[in-house]
Fold this protein.
Amino acid sequence: MDFFDNIFTNIYAWLAFWLHELLMGWNLPKDVESALVSAIMIILVIIVIILWMVLMVLILIWLERKNAARIQDRVGPNRVGPWGLLQPVADTIKMLIKEDILPENADRFVHTIAPMIVMMPPVLMFAVIPWGKGMVPVDLNIGVLWIIAVASIGTIGVFLGGYGSNNKYSLLGGMRAVAQMVSYEIPQVLTIVPIVLMVGSMSLVKINEAQSGWFGMQWFVFAFPVGTIAFVVYYLSALAEVGRTPFDIPEGESEIVAGYMTEYSGMKWALFYLAEYFNFFIVCVIGATLFLGGWNGPILPGYVWLVAKTYALVLLGMWIRMTWPRFRVDQLMNFAWKVLVPIALVNIVLAGVALPIFKMIGF
Amino acid sequence: MSTPLVLTYVGFFVMAAITLGGALMAVSARNLIRAALGLIIALIGIAGIYFVLEAEFVAVVQILVYVGAISILILFAVMLTRGLMKRDLPAQNAQWIAAAFISLAMFAALLYVALSTNWRAVETQVAGDLIPKLGTELMTTYLLPFEAVSLLLLAALVGAIVIARE
Amino acid sequence: MPVDYLPILVMIAIVTAFAVIALTLSAMTGPRRPNPTKLSPYESGMPPFGSARRRFSIKYYLTAVLFILFDIEIIFFYPWAVLFRDLGWFGLSAMGTFMLVLLIGYVYVWRKGGFEWD
């Protein structure tokens, strides 16, 4: 299975070598040549990642609609392509030729820039994920913190979207969304501390390495109780952070129409929609990387494992979305500040005390 | 100059340009939200400068705390203001001449210090991962300030509650 | 190394370009037939009243302040967590003191109703 495991790294190495050979003919200075090769390789890798993201999200959207239909005893999209597989593509084309409506008195600049800001964080997070053995586009030794920091930028876009629309529902939705995202960021950031503590590094690659071996028994979900609690807190706060249904107060249709997206149409709306699914996908990837062993797994190649684990989390999220009613605002805030934060804090203490004791016993 | 060094220079100037552009937008915008947006851009530029200076941890904290949190606080604070939600506010008030003068004086003083100080060039690059070093310093040399920070934050928490309850 | 962040800079550029191209493309292909009803802010079919730019409850501000303060406290956990193995019991007690103060603040905010919403 080594061949499939290394196929992408081999293609990368081969391409870089080929480029090198190609440039040899131009008789460039050595310095310029290597810089040029690495620049081209960087751009190639980034383009591949972005295409990969778009592909994953199109599948995710299709899967969600199909799943929702199954759970609600409907058929779901089934007209465009086999099993409705091309539905997301058709939707994209439809979005592209829709009218872009800018409500009167809206702030044009802010209204336009908001969806672009919201798009940015999940994309930046995709760049630091180890997708397979040796397949990490950018290995940062502050990986975990980078993810947390970048994720917090999205709130600004959401707020600006709500403000820029000149609509009461939008503004209320934007404010609520920001308050919610900000509140759930605290338990999310807290719950990753025990993982960093167990690994002794913030690099996602190192965190992955620490979970290898023992046929999955080294995954941090199984590091009972610390890892398990951390995983549950992470998953719940991640769902809330991306605003999926039990936590979708910011866009609760029955109260405030579509929240901060109310006045958006056409491509701008599509960007918001896309960002929502990017975010959902990436929090599942991060959950799989931090707690489910990342790309570690027997027999199959690493990247297959990571995608499989990610989709397991995705399907769980869809299941929760389809079967749970929406929380009230006060319940939502209470859940973050009075339930998740104390649990995460106790978990850190637990990890801090349990680890040295384990070490003393010689575990 | 080696390629990484050239990139460092280019990176610095790009980030400095972003910071300055954001700052200009912050002081010249006629709408408070746009001014706040300018400030956010400036803060991102400063984070970029930290990245260029290889202070990754500080840069990420800059993004997390300033771009992610302080800016939200500023935006929410704007939402609390009374008449300031209107669109075309004058960007200057009567004090702008004095403010410009003080800013210029400040800039001159900083420039003087920057040019007259005999900066020590760092001979060897600090190798590898800087975060463990930071942690060690925090837990040994700077233990007292570290604990003092917690007291400061406690005071801030109490203050926030008291102000909000008024 | 700052060079490590080059791909991320490239990524920002490409994604921005993607968003700009998508928006201009849709602006070119999409129709543009505005009318007063279409442009008026959506308020469930009622004629809109008052301004949408209004003042907000201090609740939101308080949430943001609490977020910042806890955020800063949590940041301090990370260098400690990385070094945890080397620091041992000393580090744990230092962090314990820090956390205790945080806990006092947390309990204070809870008792004073800082986490209540409405």
